[in-house]
Inverse folding.
């Protein structure tokens, strides 16, 4: 039995990098395998959140997933906090995870910054919760960006440790499916930095909520070094490289193809073409998303249905785990 699980945090704006790097692949995967797509609100509160913004972002991501083509009748879209088993299994797994394994996690080192003493315990054990997210559904495939690869490897280690502790091949070891694309969509202001929802400049990213004029304006203002011959030395010209990569991804072409089409021309011609491709591709998504956001009841119905279906898969796994561990039950 194959099953896909992935998650996205409800923090800030969804942007082109999320779409090309993650969501578009999710849409494709649901054709082949049963999928669960989780809005990781338990993970979001590992750093401080504004409650009103958090719940708004949860609904907005739900709308975005549907607008991008995730089919809520086929795939399960749900909020992590609405399946209690995640937190419960995470505790049990906490008790099977040596500190040394967590000390190696590079994301904690980055996110906790200079002052490790004031980082929250939840941020430290974040990868154990992520492991519970995956194992509670016995997911076989986990599509993630390159930056999450270490967490999925840890999940495999924890699953193995649990299985050994109870001498039973109980948990499926999940396979990461690394989405190369997501590593490559960079900021429009600095081609060496990933496009990010936390960048203070809104001109650094194209949001899924941007209208056509805004998209065109952002592309026009994108950093573009010199104007002639974009082809030359593309590896050392991160902005030109990134914009061509975006064009290639949106129009389903190979980068080489885009280079040969536009590489010897000037930048303004290329940017005009890119703006057109971006608007054509994203406008229908934005329109669907806005229509959904205007109908909160419909979004809430999707999340409610998703929670029920996710719980139905999670409950038997958790019951089995509790039995293996030796917890009392009626
Ligand atoms: N940590 C992931 C991210 O920030 C989100 C996430 C939470 C996730 N739980 C998951 C991804 C389980 C895959 C599987 O991108």
């Amino acid at each position: 039995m194959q099953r896909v699980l992935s998650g996205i945090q409800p923090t800030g704006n969804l942007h082109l990098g999320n779409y090309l790097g993650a969501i578009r692949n999710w849409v494709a995967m649901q054709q082949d395998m049963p999928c669960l797509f989780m809005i990781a609100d338990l993970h979001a509160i590992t750093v401080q959140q504004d409650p009103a913004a958090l719940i708004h972002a949860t609904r907005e991501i739900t709308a975005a997933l549907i607008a991008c083509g995730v089919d809520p009748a086929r795939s399960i879209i749900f909020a992590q906090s609405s399946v209690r088993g995640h937190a419960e299994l995470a505790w049990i797994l906490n008790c099977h995870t040596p500190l040394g394994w967590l000390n190696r996690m590079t994301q904690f080192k980055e996110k906790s910054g200079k002052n490790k003493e004031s980082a929250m315990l939840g941020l430290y054990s974040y990868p154990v919760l992520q492991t519970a997210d995956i194992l509670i559904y016995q997911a076989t495939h986990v599509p993630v960006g390159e930056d999450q690869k270490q967490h999925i490897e840890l999940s495999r280690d924890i699953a193995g440790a649990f299985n050994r502790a109870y001498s039973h091949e109980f948990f499926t070891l999940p396979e990461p499916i690394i989405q190369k694309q997501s590593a490559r969509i960079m900021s429009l202001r600095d081609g060496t930095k990933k496009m990010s929802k936390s960048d203070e400049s809104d001109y650094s990213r194209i949001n899924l909520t941007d209208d056509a004029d805004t998209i065109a304006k952002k592309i026009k203002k994108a950093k573009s070094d010199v104007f002639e011959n974009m082809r030359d030395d593309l590896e050392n010209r991160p902005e030109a490289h990134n914009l061509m990569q975006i064009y290639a991804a949106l129009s389903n072409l190979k980068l080489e193809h885009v280079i040969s089409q536009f590489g010897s021309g000037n930048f303004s011609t290329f940017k005009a073409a890119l703006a057109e491709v971006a608007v054509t591709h994203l406008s229908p998504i934005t329109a669907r998303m806005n229509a959904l956001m205007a109908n909160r009841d419909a979004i809430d119905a999707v999340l409610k249905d998703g929670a029920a279906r996710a719980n139905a898969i999670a409950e038997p796994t958790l019951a089995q785990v509790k039995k293996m561990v030796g917890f009392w039950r009626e």
